[in-house]
Amino acid sequence: MDDDICTRPGGGLPRLLAIMERLRDPETGCPWDIEQDFASIAPYTIEEAYEVADAIERGAWDELEGELGDLLLQVVYHARMGEQEGRFDFHSIAERVAQKMVDRHPHIWGDGDRDKSAEQQVADWEATKAQERKGRTLDGVALGLPALLRAVKLQNRAARVGFDWPETIAVLDKLREEAAELVEAKDTLSQDAVTEEMGDLLFVVANLARHLDVDPEAALRAANTKFTRRFEAIEDALAAEGRGPAQSDLAEMDRLWDAAKRAEKIPDHNNRD
């Protein structure tokens, strides 16, 4: 391969494809890249997707371009491995998703009615996907999804065929029931049983989020961020006295936590933006 395209700036996507081809060359490529397969690369793909989501959630627009590039590299990596195995290549991947977009938007590239609400268009999209699957209701919900996200997708699929609680209050009742069963399991049953009951409780929490139109993954990420911010405020307050959490106690840290919460609620009158 001519390495000029790999090292010459401005080559765009052809340059990236050539770089991956060079890295995966069995004779002259990078030993690490040559050894990889779909399974070994998949965790990196998931990680890069989360880093894209993280940059967006933080509003880190200066980082987003680089994170999207890292995610694109993952697609290019899988495409090259597929090409080497004679399964598919980058062109066929792009062509397949392009055709899918055309097929699923008859109101744009067909005789479908464009005068629909966004909600109706989503319903039509799901109906088209269901027709494409032509299998069991829950087929195609990826096993590799984060557990909370997969729970919501499974519940949405079941709800579309009528298997769902009609009101949110029923989900809350089920949440209380599962919480009680978890407490009972903790006191009387094996660790395996406790784990099962914990799973049931989390599944219902995901269902409650769905009924409240809340993304549980996004909600939990926000809660993680909030916890980190407030705990770091505790550490900062203790550090100002030359101490750390190990030199404090729960009562003091609770007071500092409450102080951090109050500080977040106080408006900054000096900020006019």
UniProtKB/TrEMBL annotation:
<dbReference type="GO" id="GO:0046081">
    <property type="term" value="P:dUTP catabolic process"/>
</dbReference>
<protein>
    <recommendedName>
        <fullName>Nucleoside triphosphate pyrophosphohydrolase</fullName>
        <ecNumber>3.6.1.8</ecNumber>
    </recommendedName>
</protein>
<dbReference type="InterPro" id="IPR048015">
    <property type="entry name" value="NTP-PPase_MazG-like_N"/>
</dbReference>
<dbReference type="InterPro" id="IPR048011">
    <property type="entry name" value="NTP-PPase_MazG-like_C"/>
</dbReference>
<dbReference type="GO" id="GO:0006950">
    <property type="term" value="P:response to stress"/>
</dbReference>
<dbReference type="GO" id="GO:0046047">
    <property type="term" value="P:TTP catabolic process"/>
</dbReference>
<feature type="domain" description="NTP pyrophosphohydrolase MazG-like">
    <location>
        <begin position="36"/>
        <end position="109"/>
    </location>
</feature>
<dbReference type="InterPro" id="IPR011551">
    <property type="entry name" value="NTP_PyrPHydrolase_MazG"/>
</dbReference>
<dbReference type="Pfam" id="PF03819">
    <property type="entry name" value="MazG"/>
</dbReference>
<dbReference type="GO" id="GO:0046052">
    <property type="term" value="P:UTP catabolic process"/>
</dbReference>
<dbReference type="GO" id="GO:0046076">
    <property type="term" value="P:dTTP catabolic process"/>
</dbReference>
<dbReference type="InterPro" id="IPR004518">
    <property type="entry name" value="MazG-like_dom"/>
</dbReference>
<comment type="similarity">
    <text>Belongs to the nucleoside triphosphate pyrophosphohydrolase family.</text>
</comment>
<dbReference type="GO" id="GO:0047693">
    <property type="term" value="F:ATP diphosphatase activity"/>
</dbReference>
<feature type="domain" description="NTP pyrophosphohydrolase MazG-like">
    <location>
        <begin position="171"/>
        <end position="230"/>
    </location>
</feature>
<dbReference type="GO" id="GO:0006203">
    <property type="term" value="P:dGTP catabolic process"/>
</dbReference>
<dbReference type="GO" id="GO:0046061">
    <property type="term" value="P:dATP catabolic process"/>
</dbReference>
